[in-house]
Amino acid sequence: MERFDLIIIGGGIVGLWSAYFAAQRGLKTVLVEEHGIAAGASGGVLGALMPHSPDRWNAKKQFQFEALNQLPGLLQEIEARTGQNVGYRRVGRIAPILKEHHVDDVARRAEGANEFWQTEQSAFAMQHMDAGPAANWPAVEAMPFGVAADNFSARLSPRKLIMALAGSLHGSIDMRFATRAAFLGEKQVTLGDGSILHADKVLVSAGLASFDMLRPYAPSISGRGVKGQAAVLGTDLDPNLPIIYSDGVYLIVHDDGTTAIGSTSEKEFTEGRETDHLLDDVVEKARALCPIVKDAPVIERWAGVRPQAQGRDPLLGVIPQHDWLYVATGGFKISFGIAHLMAQSVLGALCGDETAPSIPKEFTPGNRLPR
Q1: Regions of the chain where pLDDT drops below 50
Q2: Coil/strand/helix, residue 226
Q3: Angle formed by the axes of helices 59-82 and 335-351, nearest 10°
Q4: Measured in whole angstroms, how far is the alpha carbon of residue 72 from the centre of its chain?
Q5: Which alpha helices (DSSP H) does 25-58 contain, by range?
Q6: Does an H or E element contain 280, and which?
Q7: pLDDT of 371
Q8: Can you tell me the distance from the alpha carbon of 89 to that of 84, in angstroms, rounded to the nearest whole number?
Q9: C-alpha to C-alpha distance for 84 and 100, rounded to whole angstroms
Q10: Most buried of the four, 92, 99, 323, 353, by CB within 10 Å?
Q11: Rounded distance between C-alpha atoms, residue 105 and residue 54, angstroms
Q12: How big is the chain by its Cα radius of gyration, in Å?
């Protein structure tokens, strides 16, 4: 009989960070992944790390702020352990202002940044600027009332981080790929080949599949998949250029000078991993937004389905009345910016560590149950 302290189901960004912190705690851990590392939504190309707007502050925004502020130090730790660069750079973000009255909104958010985006080590800010930092980034006509600029946003390479995390786990935990978790029983997981793993705790972090896995134990907790499509353009641009975000379109220059373009948010779709004309539309919008990428070839197209939990907040914590079963999923578009803090929080909860980062009440499964 194979027995562990912890079984983690899912080899995406949340599952890998959870395995990383479980190994640090000395837990005998096995990670079970049906396909391969980051086979789902975590295998994308964008890598945007953008904070929520610093107004109407709430627990979710505070959690994300703390996560984004902590992340650079953790990435340096991963890079030092593995010798692999994860493509992180705090480049900031600019968002074209399309209507005159939105200038006042930017001023209000700038005040919010001065209040909520501050730490003892760093002072992050948002401001109104007449234009972006480089010609045609974006086009003059795309920013009729200037841009909202912040110095807090960053980007990384999702795939490089995934590979570095996986590499850091070598020899620390048991990792089983191409292994399906067929059935959850109390403190045990039956695999596709009929073998059974036993553990004191089970953590489900399998993205969209998490909701079906949990249904026998929490039938009222639900979520859905939202398809995203993105592309990479074969550019040779300055990797210090800020992220551009305008009307749902992202342009992100990575360390190799290529530009990631995204993304769609499709609630209705038939093929979750196939790209189509909706991605073509996003690419054309990006070319119009920034003429310097107008003639750049598309060198990669990508599609995946992101998990969105009921209520839109991440789903994080113990399943009520089942103290052996935990969940960490539903990061949706901000997963790469908060996955590490989700992992630390849920590991702290399942280990009974009161010094670990706390889970916001809004994220907990108990908060999603009927009242």
Answers
A1: none
A2: strand
A3: 90
A4: 15
A5: none
A6: helix 277-289
A7: 59
A8: 15
A9: 45
A10: 92
A11: 11
A12: 21
Dist CA 185 CA 134 (whole Å): 57
Say how far apart CA 287 and CA 98 lie, in whole Å: 17
What is the domain partition of the chain in residue ranges? 2-43+160-222+311-368, 90-151+224-309
How confident is the model at residue 369, as a pLDDT?
Answer: 73
Place of tokens 């598309």: 298
On the question of a common fold for 2-43+160-222+311-368 and 90-151+224-309, the answer reads: no
Q: Quote the distance between the C-alpha of residue 5 and its chain's center.
A: 26
Q: Dihedrals φ, ψ of 343, to 5°?
A: -65, -45
* pLDDT reported for residue 23: 98
Residue type, 39: A
Look at residue 38 in the predicted model and tell me its pLDDT.
87
How far apart are the C-alpha atoms of 234 and 296, rounded to whole Å? 6
Which pLDDT belongs to residue 312? 83
Please name the residue that has the structure tokens 């007449």.
130
Residue with tokens 């553990």: 199
305 sits in which H/E element: strand 298-309
- Whether the link from the prior residue into 122 is cis, omega within 30° of 0, is no
CATH of domain 90-151+224-309: 3.30.9.10
Distance, C-alpha 305 to centroid of its chain: 12
CA dihedral 359, 363, 368, 371 (to 10 degrees): 60
Q: Enter the DSSP assignment of 362.
A: G
What number of CA atoms fall less than 13 Å from residue 271's CA on the CB side? 8
Handedness of CA 63, 64, 70, 76 (dihedral sign): positive
Pick left, alpha or beta for residue 247 (phi over 0 → left; psi -120 to 50 → alpha; otherwise beta). Answer: left
| CA gap 319, 72 in Å, rounded | 31
Residue 345 is inside which H or E element, if any?
helix 335-351
Global pTM? 0.97
Tell me how far apart the alpha carbons of residues 26 and 17 are, in angstroms, rounded to a whole number. Answer: 14
Per CATH, the architecture of 2-43+160-222+311-368 is what? 3-Layer(bba) Sandwich (3.50)
